[in-house]
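Ligand: nicotinamide-adenine-dinucleotide. Inputs:
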Amino acid sequence: MKTNYAIVGLGHRSQMYSTAILSRFFEQAALVALCDSNQSRMDYYNKRFADTYGAVAVPTFKPNRFNEMLQTRGVHTVIVTSMDSTHHQYVVDALLGGCDVVCEKPLTIDAQKCQQIIDVQKQTGKRVTVTFNYRYAPHSSLVKDLLMRGAIGTVTSIHFEWLLDTRHGADYFRRWHRDKSKNGGLMVHKSSHHFDLVNWWLASEPATVFGFGKLAFYGKENALRRGQTNTYARAYGSQAAAADPFALHLEQNLNLKELYLDAEHEDGYYRDQGVFAEGITTEDDCALVVKYANGATLSYHLHAYSPWEGLRVMFNGTKGRMELEWVESACNHDVNNPSPEADLVATLGLTNTVVIDRDTSPKITLQPLWGKPLRVTIPEFDSGGHGGGDARLLTDIFAPSVAHDQLGRAAGLRDGVMSILTGIAANQSFSCGQPIDAAKLVTW
Ligand SMILES: NC(=O)c1ccc[n+]([C@@H]2O[C@H](COP(=O)([O-])OP(=O)(O)OC[C@H]3O[C@@H](n4cnc5c(N)ncnc54)[C@H](O)[C@@H]3O)[C@@H](O)[C@H]2O)c1
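Predicted complex:
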């Protein structure tokens, strides 16, 4: 028998799930309902489904008819891909309606909503899966495998830096993510991916969190302080945006135009806001220290205005050290200024530099105490989102193997909760300047 899925939140991310249901997993899954506050986006997807797969229109529902949708459409599992601050309501209502839930990260954005989900899941006994695609990326899985097999002994500390560049990182400041009340800030919205990896790699849970977060680069005040005056509310129709490398031009991309520009008359969701406009409450530069239940410690930095995107993680262990580096995007370009590096060399009068191409192949280096470093070969790096992680994650959701996954990559409710507790505690620490006991933020 097929599993009947409903998707709530028909933005960009939802297409990973709808495509999977309508193509790769059509024998196991059926898409029986769509729910969104914006009818135009639901209609956009129905047209796409018809054009691409010859599918008949999937019935659409506004949020006030969510419960009716569950009952009338025979929904077994709800996939939640709506705006983060709305996740908890759909997770709770779906569980109470007798459904299982697949929820995009972050599970929710604060401790109170998190507790509500825990309580209702306990009451109903239904399943909540949180989708952590990064676990499935080959380098992340290999790190887990090596740590499980004792490659560096007991891990005592981790130093973790994640850089978001001026293209992808800037995107968080163009839309609802710029408002912390809608996504819990990047510590919850984005870093829950990274904190989940650390929890999983360490096989432990966060205990104490202390940090500082600030808006250091984006936002009107920062721009004006740097003497940058071409701030604009949104790119569409703005002269100032025409030559701004930070601008997103929705009208130049048919999918973005149809999904957002042509849908905004309904709800005023502007997907192309100026990253140097007023109203940003989300931090773009955050530093944390975290102590884990097993005694390990983490120093972590997220930075959202970097020239390159990727991560560096260093694991210190009782038998050696392991280092992971992954460059997701080496360099962005500004058509108005094709070689700022040459300007830098000229301005500083440097004579001892050479332009290099950053190596984008992921690297794992393993070095035993007293020994030389080893470069560990990472298995095939698939194409597709998140280093091929998306594709493997989908298999786990729609066609789970009966074979036991030694690495335990499928994430349940507790993993989803633990992944956001570090960020929720970080937000509290940013506000009060004190370390926060993350373990006490919820009860089980
Ligand atoms: N795992 C990943 O790597 C990854 C990548 C991208 C996005 N995501 C997650 O997917 C989710 C969606 O992100 P996106 O980029 O598609 O955002 P988006 O803005 O494109 O889509 C969000 C959708 O939610 C809808 N919505 C807003 N309020 C609603 C409400 N009250 N009820 C129903 N629908 C509502 C909007 O109309 C929109 O269609 C987010 O939670 C995000 O964190 C995860």
